C-alpha cells in the first residue's frame, strides 16, 4: 500500500535515478522524486547556451495554456526525452495553487502503464516545473481498446 508524503521543505533535494533496465528498455531513467527548490532553475544555461532546468535541456514548446506551457526536453545525463510542464505560480490564486500541489502529490504515487509518470518536481519562487514522461505519439485508437469509433472521435 502506498503512503502519501507531503511536498518537501525548501532544503530537501532528491536526485535519485532508476537503476538501468528498470523501464524494460535497458535505460537509466530519472526516478519519480519528491521535489527540488531552486532559485535560478530556469535561468541556468548549458555549455552550448541552450536553456535548461535542472538536468534537463529545453528543446521546444509542445503545448501551451493560460497558466502553463509544456516543453520537450532532454535529460542531460541519459539523453532521454521528457516533457516539462512549466507552471507560472504567480498567475494562480491560493486555492488553485493548493489544488495543483494536491494533484502533484497524487501524481507522485500513481504508477500505471496508461498514466504518464511524474519523474521530478522542481520549484522556484514563481515557477513549478513538472518533469514527466514524454508520450511522443499521443493517444491512438489502439491505446484505448473497447471504445467505439464515434467515442474515439470525441476524444
Automatic annotation (TrEMBL):
GO process annotations (BP): intracellular signal transduction; microtubule cytoskeleton organization
Binding site for ATP: 85
Lineage top rank: taxon: Eukaryota
Any one GO molecular-function label of the UniProt entry: ATP binding
Catalytic activity of the protein: L-threonyl-[protein] + ATP = O-phospho-L-threonyl-[protein] + ADP + H(+); L-seryl-[protein] + ATP = O-phospho-L-seryl-[protein] + ADP + H(+)
Gene Ontology CC: one annotated term: cytoplasm
Region (Disordered): 1-32
Keywords for this protein: ATP-binding, Kinase, Nucleotide-binding, Serine/threonine-protein kinase, Transferase
EC number: 2.7.11.1
Comp. bias (Basic and acidic residues): 11-28
Enzyme class, spelled out: transferase
Record's keyword annotation contains rRNA processing: no
PROSITE patterns: PROTEIN_KINASE_ATP (PS00107), PROTEIN_KINASE_DOM (PS50011)
Protein's UniProt keywords contain Glycoprotein: no
Identification of the protein by name: non-specific serine/threonine protein kinase
Organism: Poecilia reticulata
Amino acid at each position: 500500500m502506498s503512503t502519501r508524503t507531503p511536498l518537501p521543505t525548501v532544503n530537501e533535494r532528491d536526485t535519485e535515478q532508476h537503476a538501468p533496465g528498470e523501464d524494460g528498455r535497458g535505460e537509466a531513467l530519472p526516478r519519480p522524486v519528491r521535489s527540488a527548490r531552486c532559485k535560478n532553475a530556469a535561468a541556468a544555461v548549458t555549455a552550448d547556451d541552450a536553456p535548461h532546468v535542472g538536468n534537463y535541456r529545453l528543446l521546444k514548446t509542445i503545448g501551451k495554456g493560460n497558466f502553463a506551457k509544456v516543453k520537450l526536453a532532454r535529460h542531460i545525463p541519459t539523453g532521454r526525452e521528457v516533457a516539462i510542464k512549466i507552471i507560472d505560480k504567480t498567475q494562480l490564486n491560493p486555492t488553485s495553487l493548493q489544488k495543483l500541489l494536491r494533484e502533484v502529490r497524487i501524481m507522485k504515487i500513481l504508477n500505471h502503464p496508461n498514466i504518464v509518470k511524474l519523474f521530478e518536481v522542481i520549484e522556484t519562487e514563481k515557477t513549478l516545473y513538472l518533469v514527466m514522461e514524454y508520450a511522443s505519439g499521443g493517444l491512438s485508437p489502439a491505446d484505448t481498446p473497447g471504445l467505439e469509433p464515434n467515442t474515439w472521435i470525441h476524444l
